[in-house]
Amino acid sequence: MNGLRRALGLGLRGGWRRWPSSWPAGGARVAPRRATPGGFSTVSSVERPPRRWEAAKDPREEEEEFVFPEYHQEEEKPDLEKLLRGLIDEEEEEKEEAANNPRVPRPPPPLQAPDGRLPKQPRRRKPHKPSGSPDPSIPSSGVGCSGCGAELHCRDPALPGYLPSAKYLSLLGRPGEPPQGEGEGQGEAQAGECPEKALEDAVCQRCWLLMYHQQALRVQVTREEYRNVVSSAVRGSLRHGRPPLVLCMADVLDLPDSLPLDLPEVVGDQANILVLGNKVDLLPGDSPGYLKRLQQRLLEACAHIGLNQDSGGPNQRVIDVHLLSAKTGYGVEELISKMQRSWKFNGDVYLVGATNTGKSTLFNTLLQSDYCKSRASDVIHRATISPWPGTTLNLLKFPIINPTPYRIFRREERLAADAAKAEEDLSEEERNHLKTLKKQSYLIGRVGRTFQLSQKLRKNCEIDFDADALSFNAEEEPTLPSKTTKKAELSYNEVKDARWFHDTPGIIRDGCVLNLLNEKEVKLVLPTCAIVPRTFVLKPGMTLFLGALGRIDYVQGDQSSWFTVVASNLVPVHITMVEKADAIYEKHAGHKLLKVPMGGEERMKDFPPLVPQDVMLEGAGDAEAVADIKLSSAGWVAVTAHSKNKMHLRCYTPEGTALTIRKPPLLPHIVQIKGERLRRSVAYKTKRPPPFVENLGKNVRKQQKNVI
Q: Which helix (H) or strand (E) holds 454?
């Protein structure tokens, strides 16, 4: 037995060591990383003993970090088209560098292993550098980008709609200009073709980088220019003798700030207004009937900026308030039915709102639905969508289908048939899509289409047989003709009396923290999957950090209180003492612990400092939040305190951004969505409510009973 022990000791000598005697006695006894059933894990930098080459640290200097490993959004499967285009662009850049710098020696080949194999090297994806140069002498095209709507030109890279001059001329088919390879802007043109036809499918350089390289270019567009584009479109000459219907899009996560204060001036006093609350799929239901409460909060926010539901006031009528998710399709079919029954075919429809409220996502969803003409979805290009504020720069539109009684009858038949289906009755592709959405959202809907060409007919329409092109004699080499597909176009009769659905540029808001962030930081701060609330119990004298974007000091109070963070799962939460908060911010802002902003000391030099604001609250009971402390667009913290507990809080946001105290809170019972308290920690285990699909057979009664 002793020999076996010695053998095991020799075999495990490299992986087992005693803790050194320098380990601090009585230090911070934080257990090793433990993934709890609720999704939290507590991690400390003292969770392991120090190595021999490391100096022992004072446990008083260590900080507890709350990691959120379980509810991060899964990485999407890579798009093959985007990958191929990225490889093509990289090859073209290498060829250009080799042509411009012929004397640069090539790097030596990597050393080979004894078996002749090359060692695997990690692939580093370089940021794509836009190539090409402008040409101010060439006039603008007068044609809009199919992705953002901006007028295409090659004059100035800082203006919306820019294309490099070489690519711009090749698309126009100008004589004497050789066609360029694949790059920014797509489409081919024949020589002498008019600009409207030649640039019909083209996208600007900015949209190209957003779609294929996830890079955002800043353009010189002021807030007044955005506002003027929207206002002139909505308040222009009345088409068909009627004022338009305005769909006012609001982000329910950012109420009331997602409704700009000057929105009544933009839409005018003649428009009929339907208010849409988007992104409800990201919020967990804190109690039965929570969607009705969200509708009421949305109405209160509209009244705050001067949009009234009754006909009193300056003739601005909010005819209805509707909640939906443009991403998952929840509430979209109901919205289409409402507009087809009430608005019918009376006039044009305009989709307006602030930036990042999801207007372009809803535009793309409706483009593939019963609200758009059947053939138009094959002709109209989808809008460019990205988390970057102000992606849409001009008007985009598609023709609205005329809801005749026969079409409405057929549509209701399809909706009834879809609602009777169970999840097992769906196709494999749709089940996989629902499975993905259930991981990312709480509320899900299925958007279908009643009138559309079958796939067989679509394929038959693309066949173009040319006998002369296929014929050859014995003396000639057989060659295959080039594949040319005729572009689908809407006829004059289809659009002469059409009513149009317009997507407008987002109105830029003042005091928004997203205006201070770069593209990587925006992707972290804007939630894209279901928000799981994180609850902490704090005593007076403690501080809560939401990244480096917000801070709440519990200065004074009678008892401990609960602070529930409702923000992106990727933004970390850090808890410390008030006397140490300033030192922690100076040390960790821009680094891994606080994470956002990122970039170290150089990044924080350009970032504005945190500005305090004192807030006085009085508790209403341990089951209901008294108020939401909204840290600009970074998220909010719901404060729950014992009854009659008077609290003095000091809240910080970056200078120039808005701090909003929301009373009553948006989700007053959100403190109930938590698990057990973690041992020797201020945090609770997280709990995620189950998702809900609205138009499945077994969920219809559940929706009427529990959700709405």
A: none
Question: What's the predicted TM-score (pTM) here?
Answer: 0.73
Share of the chain above pLDDT 70, in %: 63
Q: Is the dihedral of CA 305, 309, 311, 317 positive or negative?
A: positive
Beta strands 245-251 and 349-353, pairing class: parallel
- Tell me the two tokens of residue 187: 């489409």
Cα→Cα distances 9→3, 5, 592, Å:
10, 6, 38
Q: What is the DSSP string of 108-140?
A: PPPPPPTTSPPPP-PPP-PPPPP-----TTSPP
State the Cα–Cα distance between residues 279 and 264, nearest whole angstrom: 23
Task: Provide the residue count of the chain.
Answer: 708
Q: Please, what is the Cα angle at 689 between 685 and 691, to 5 degrees?
A: 145
Nearest in space to 568 (alpha carbons), one of 585, 549, 555:
549
> Per-residue pLDDT tens for 315-374?
457 888 999 999 999 999 999 999 999 888 788 899 998 888 988 899 889 988 999 888
Pair 694, 443: CB distance under 8 Å: yes
Phi, psi of 481, rounded to the nearest 5 degrees: -70, 150
Whether the upstream peptide bond of residue 691 has omega within 30° of 0, thus cis, is no
Of 144, 34, 68, 59, residue with least CA distance to 381: 144
Q: Is the peptide bond before 284 cis (omega within 30 degrees of 0)?
A: no
Between CA 97 and CA 588 the distance in angstroms is 40
Q: What residues contact residue 672 under an 8 Å CB cut-off, 6+ apart?
A: 286, 287, 623
The pair phi, psi for residue 544, each rounded to 5°, is -115, 125
Of all residues in the chain, what percent are helix, strand and coil, respectively (each to 5)?
A: 30, 15, 55
> Is residue 545 a contact partner of residue 574, using CB atoms and an 8 Å limit?
yes
User: How far apart, in whole angstroms, are the C-alpha atoms of residue 45 and residue 64?
Assistant: 8
